[in-house]
Design goal:
Blueprint lengths: L1 E8 L2 E7 L9 H8 L9 E6 L8 E7 L4 E2 L3 H13 L8 E5 L2 E7 L5 E6 L19 E3 L2 E7 L3 E6 L6 H9 L9 E9 L2 E8 L3 E3 L3 H13 L6 E6 L2 E7 L4 E5 L2 E8 L7
Parallel strand pairs: 2-3, 4-6, 11-12, 13-15
Antiparallel strand pairs: 1-2, 1-18, 3-4, 4-5, 6-7, 7-8, 8-17, 9-10, 10-11, 12-13, 13-14, 15-16, 16-17
């Protein structure tokens, strides 16, 4: 039996597992089985708490999409990760530094139990996104649409629209483009004013989620670079609101994380 905790950040939902002892090793098929919302637990991402390999980190933060693929960044998950560590008394440090495949994240739990995540420095170099183009540009024409693109641990493509409707077709075409060899999260942003946007995100390996933390950061960064937004922006996602701050170098994401329930699952029988 494997113990787990179900959590969500603005409706972006997660299963969190304590793997500090290193005794949980799941196959791609087992992750897919667990993520199934009818026959499994159901989640957008699986978050593993592991022992850090870096002396500068308190824990290692490992993220798997619902399709079993491993990814390097999830801002909403990072907030749940920090709150889980606090509730389970795994550490009394605040802020926490966690190791990811994209580098170190700093997680600060606020007095109101929201969490501020230092998401690091965005990368606009196409080879680092990765995007199969040679030159950095404010926007790129991809599958007939003008998009901004950058990496904030994960690759993102951002479209600015007057109304956010009929996004699935567009997202599918952009995600299947050969220009994004590792896939891409596609964000659809409507600018409400200099300090507010509406955002929907279709994530690679998941589909549209109620919220995407790194997607919120990517959208705000792109909007600031287009001179449409100020440095601090409220992002209205389908699951609720997050705050993104970008000073031209580092980006910070602030929002809630919620516990839903705890349980255990037997992968052999599929029971929980």
């Amino acid at each position: 039996m494997i113990n787990f905790t179900k959590m969500h950040g603005l409706g972006n939902d997660f299963v969190v597992m304590n793997n500090l002892d290193g005794d949980v090793c799941l196959s791609v098929e087992e992750i897919r089985q667990l993520s199934d919302r009818r026959f499994g637990i159901g989640f957008d991402q699986l978050l593993m708490i592991e022992t850090a390999t870096s002396k500068d980190a308190d824990f290692r933060y490992v993220i798997y999409n619902a399709d079993g693929s491993e990814v390097s960044q999830c801002g909403n998950g990072a907030r749940c990760f920090a709150l889980y560590i606090q509730k389970k008394n795994l550490s009394y440090k605040n802020p926490l530094t966690v190791e990811t495949n994209a580098g170190l994240l700093v997680l600060n739990i606020n007095k109101d139990e929201t969490v501020k995540v230092d998401m690091g420095v965005p990368d606009f170099e196409p080879s680092k996104i990765p995007l199969n183009l040679n030159q950095v540009s404010p926007e790129y024409e991809i599958e007939g649409h003008m998009v901004g693109s950058l990496s904030i641990g994960n690759p993102h493509a951002i479209l600015i629209q007057d109304e956010i409707t009929d996004i699935d077709d567009i997202a599918s075409k952009i995600q299947s483009s050969e220009l994004f060899p590792e896939g891409v999260n596609v964000g659809f942003m409507k600018v409400l004013n200099k300090n507010e946007i509406q955002l929907r995100v279709v994530e690679r390996g998941v589909g549209e989620t109620l919220a995407c933390g790194s997607g919120a950061c990517a959208a705000v960064i792109h909007g600031i670079r287009q001179e449409l937004l100020d440095s601090k922006v409220t992002v209205h996602l389908n699951g609720g609101d997050a705050t993104v701050e970008f000073d031209g170098e580092k980006v910070h994401l602030t929002g809630p994380g919620m516990f839903v329930y705890e349980g255990s699952v037997n992968l052999r029988s599929g029971s929980s």
